[in-house]
């Protein structure tokens, strides 16, 4: 028995509704009720997925890239870490970009500036430097370095070995607002160096605080947090403070002039997990990018276990139930968009201490 066209439906919608939708489409409109459940979700539904980038494998690919393209040719010789859930977007999370950058002995990556803010964690190599707003900053493994929005910066390597670091930028946030600007340095590849030794800790004190709420401030006026001093701070916390059941001994990099985050859109953290640590589960709305500074262990992300060791980078999507375990003492660096979420009143966390 045939059903008339007038009584038929598509996906539960009547012909009359479908006809209405077609007319709405012609005037660049759509019915909210058809997409409401996708726009306003009961909980976060991130498109990005848990993933690890093995450092040894990525290092080999970087060295291969170093044979094929110069730092000047590329402007920045970087391998973008693309989340498998959002390939083609040059994003590690839905709000952040990350990449592994390498500069070889004798090379210079030309000076430029852009609206996006950048942070860098040095993974290996000595002899490298980055210059930010006329301040030349030497790079050493574990150092954390900032490039605030719209500051000229270039990189070089006066040493004898490759220097590799992790880049984190808020490019997706800037592009969300259609606020991207960039320009090359007006007078050559390298900016004039006006000062050196810009260690934030030496100037202002440790600039690391136990992880807790701090006010969101403007971009930090300092650029360099030496790992040797950061390790000292971790050691002091481990000696004098109680261990956090979820995070071990965790500190937050801060802006010394405001007590807030070092950048308006990105926060950065360092945590020490003692040998045999079995962390309690935790979740928060800020997707986090981790880089293993020392040691080895594993992280459970919504039941998926990622094994990690020194240099590896892995990502924890928003609102994922997460816990860390270690075999020996380990140190993890991480960054996220927590400051932006807090400024907008969006950030949430849950601890599963029980």
Describe the protein:
This protein is an alpha+beta fold. The protein has helices spanning 15-26, 36-39, 55-68, 71-74, 171-176, 200-204, 227-240, 338-343; strands at 51-53, 78-80, 97-103, 108-114, 118-124, 128-132, 135-138, 144-147, 153-157, 163-169, 182-184, 195-196, 208-210, 224-225, 249-253, 267-273, 281-284, 288-294, 296-301, 304-309, 313-316, 322-326, 330-336, 349-352. The chain has eight helices and 24 strands. It has a seven-stranded antiparallel sheet. A six-stranded antiparallel sheet has the order 2-3-10-5-8-14. The protein has a six-stranded mixed sheet with strand order 11-4-9-6-7-12. Strand 19 and strand 20 form a beta hairpin. The longest helix is centred in the first third of the chain and has 14 residues, at 55-68. 40% of the residues are buried. It is an enzyme of class 1 (oxidoreductase). Residues 100-167 form the Cupin type-2 domain. Its EC number is 1.13.11.4. This is Gentisate 1,2-dioxygenase.
Estimated helix fraction: 10-25%
**Can you summarize the main beta sheet?**
7 strands, antiparallel
Structure summary, number of beta strands: 24
Class derived from helix and strand content: alpha+beta
Radius of gyration: 23 Å
β-strand amount? 25-35%
């Amino acid at each position: 028995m045939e059903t008339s066209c007038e009584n038929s439906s598509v996906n539960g919608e009547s012909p009359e509704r479908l006809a209405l939708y077609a007319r709405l489409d012609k005037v660049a409109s759509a019915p909210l009720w058809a997409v409401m459940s996708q726009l306003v979700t009961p909980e976060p539904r991130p498109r990005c997925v848990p993933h690890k980038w093995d450092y040894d494998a990525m290092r080999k690919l970087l060295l291969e890239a170093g044979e094929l393209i110069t730092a000047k040719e590329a402007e920045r010789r970087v391998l973008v870490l693309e989340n498998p859930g959002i390939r083609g977007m040059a994003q590690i999370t839905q709000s952040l970009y990350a990449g592994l950058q390498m500069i070889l002995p004798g090379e210079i990556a030309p000076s430029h500036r852009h609206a996006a803010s950048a942070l860098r964690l040095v993974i290996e190599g000595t002899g490298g430097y980055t210059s930010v707003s006329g301040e030349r900053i030497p790079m050493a493994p574990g150092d954390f370095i900032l490039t605030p929005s719209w500051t000229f910066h270039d990189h070089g390597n006066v040493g004898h070995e490759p220097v590799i670091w992790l880049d984190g930028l808020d490019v997706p946030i800037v592009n969300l607002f259609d606020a991207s600007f960039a320009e090359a340095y007006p007078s050559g590849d390298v900016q004039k160096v006006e000062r050196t030794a810009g260690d934030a800790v030496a100037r202002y004190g440790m600039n690391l605080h136990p992880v807790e709420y701090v006010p969101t401030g403007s971009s930090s006026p300092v650029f360099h947090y030496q790992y040797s001093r950061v390790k000292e701070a971790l050691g002091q916390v481990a000696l004098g403070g109680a261990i956090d059941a979820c995070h071990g001994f965790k500190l937050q990099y801060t802006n010394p002039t405001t007590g807030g985050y070092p950048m308006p859109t990105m926060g950065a953290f360092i945590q020490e997990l003692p040998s045999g640590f079995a962390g309690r589960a935790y979740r928060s709305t800020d997707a986090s990018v981790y880089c293993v500074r020392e040691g080895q262990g594993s992280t459970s992300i919504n039941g998926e276990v990622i094994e990690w060791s020194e240099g590896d980078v892995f990502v924890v999507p928003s609102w994922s139930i997460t816990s860390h375990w270690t075999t020996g003492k380990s140190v993890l660096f991480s960054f996220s968009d927590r400051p932006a979420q807090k400024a907008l009143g969006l950030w949430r966390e849950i601890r599963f201490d029980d």
